[in-house]
């Protein structure tokens, strides 16, 4: 039973840490997901709580997971884990039945699960959580309370820092299909042989004042006593959906220019704003400088927004901007970059760089080869992330090894007694 308790702690703890971390690196993604749920259930008044709830949820999950792994504050942690699962397991069952939002968002964009997959996943986690809860008082913790509190405090600080940094800049790790290095055109392709959506046709015919439904196998097409009323297509099986869909660039003047932009051999700056009325005005000066820099250096600079034609023209005229705005689906814009405004650098449809409005580059930083500039910048970032990842993994492995060694040592002592 002690081994089962130990395995349960590691299993539930690692899942909580992973779930909390992938939410913490993208707090705006969790905010959008909470907003989707509130709108789906008619709770529009709660939209303002979406962001603090996103921070709270990721912090709680990450901290409980760390406490479980390190066996800190056992009683409180067991209660929190149990209450967490008792709340979300029935909730995910309701979501699986009603399906108001197709993706639960429980693992952010790192791992997309359907609502039914999420429910069954929670059933498994709940079972292991019950083991942890039932044995929370069986063994005394050998570490003093101050050490346990220090661990919990450290987990809180780390999670909040990750969320804050990712909100004020961009996600530390980008799990979305518009990450740096991704080719937008490739992301929209459907592979050969990929399954397509399957539909069932229903036909409504009337006879003697009675309307009856038929399908393709039995509709009375030869019986003239039945009069056709209506038909509909019902999707019975979901086909392959490419990672990037509903992406287009168009306006009323030039029409759709998506292929022209994505196939351009030169550099292209995309200024992204899901709503021009909500754009952060502190970035306007930088936007103007960068757009004039692009104009002087024969670099394409265009704006993407979900705002209407009048809003686009008014924004351009009011701020005396030398570039045009085009419409793109709002959901795609929110997926492309978690900043309003945000900036992308493209070449032949490949995303070379992305900037939060707080990190827009100075024009003099962009002299020379833009691709080399972006590669050098992100090589440095990737090296730093690699060092952090390796260090964290080694520390976690050392902790797990120590915990396993302690468990085996205690088991041997009990056998000797």
TrEMBL record:
One GO biological process term: methylamine metabolic process
InterPro entries: Methylamine_util_MauE
Any single Pfam family the record assigns to this protein: MauE
Domain Methylamine utilisation protein MauE: residue ranges: 1-132
Keyword presence, Transmembrane helix: yes
Superkingdom in the source lineage: Bacteria
Keywords: Membrane, Transmembrane, Transmembrane helix
Localization: Membrane
Coiled-coil parts of chain: none
Membrane topology reported for the UniProt record: Multi-pass membrane protein
Gene Ontology CC, one term: membrane
TM stretches of this protein: 50-70, 77-98, 118-134, 385-406
Protein name: DoxX family protein
Organism: Labilibaculum euxinus
């Amino acid at each position: 039973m002690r081994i089962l308790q130990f395995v349960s702690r590691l299993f539930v703890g690692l899942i909580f840490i992973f779930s909390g971390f992938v939410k913490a690196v993208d707090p705006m993604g969790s905010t959008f997901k909470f907003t989707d749920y509130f709108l789906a259930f008619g709770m529009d008044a709660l939209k303002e709580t979406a962001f603090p709830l996103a921070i709270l949820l990721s912090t709680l999950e990450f901290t409980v997971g760390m406490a479980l792994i390190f066996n800190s504050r056992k009683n409180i942690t067991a209660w929190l884990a149990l209450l967490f699962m008792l709340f979300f397991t029935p909730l995910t069952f309701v979501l699986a039945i009603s399906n108001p939002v197709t993706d639960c968002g429980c693992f952010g964009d790192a791992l997309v699960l359907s609502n039914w997959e999420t429910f069954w996943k929670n059933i498994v986690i709940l079972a292991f959580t019950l083991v942890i809860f039932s044995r929370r008082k069986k063994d005394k913790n050998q570490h003093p309370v101050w050490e346990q509190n220090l661990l919990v405090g450290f987990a809180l600080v780390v999670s909040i820092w990750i969320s804050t940094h990712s909100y004020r800049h961009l996600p530390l790790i980008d799990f979305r299909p518009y990450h740096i290095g991704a080719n937008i055109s490739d992301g929209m392709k459907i592979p050969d042989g990929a399954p397509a959506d399957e539909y069932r046709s229903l036909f409504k015919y009337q006879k003697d004042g009675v309307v009856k439904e038929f399908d393709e196998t039995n509709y009375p097409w030869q019986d003239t006593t039945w009069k056709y009323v209506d038909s509909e297509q019902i999707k019975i099986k979901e086909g392959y959906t490419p990672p990037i869909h509903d992406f287009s660039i168009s306006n009323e003047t030039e029409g759709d220019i998506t292929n022209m932009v994505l196939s351009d051999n030169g550099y292209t700056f995309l200024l992204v704003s899901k709503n021009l009325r909500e754009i952060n005005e502190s970035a306007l000066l930088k936007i103007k400088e960068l757009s004039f820099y692009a104009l002087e250096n024969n670099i394409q600079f265009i704006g993407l927004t979900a705002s209407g034609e009048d809003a686009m023209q008014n924004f351009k005229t009011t701020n005396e901007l030398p570039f045009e705005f085009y419409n793109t689906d709002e959901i795609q814009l929110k997926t492309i970059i978690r900043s309003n405004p945000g900036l992308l650098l493209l070449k032949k449809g490949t995303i070379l760089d992305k900037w939060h409005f707080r990190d827009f580059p100075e024009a003099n930083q962009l002299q020379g080869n833009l691709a080399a500039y972006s590669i050098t910048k992100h090589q440095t970032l990737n090296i730093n992330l690699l060092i952090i990842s390796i260090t964290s993994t080694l520390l976690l492995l050392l902790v797990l090894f120590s915990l396993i060694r302690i468990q085996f040592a205690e088991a041997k002592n009990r056998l000797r007694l």
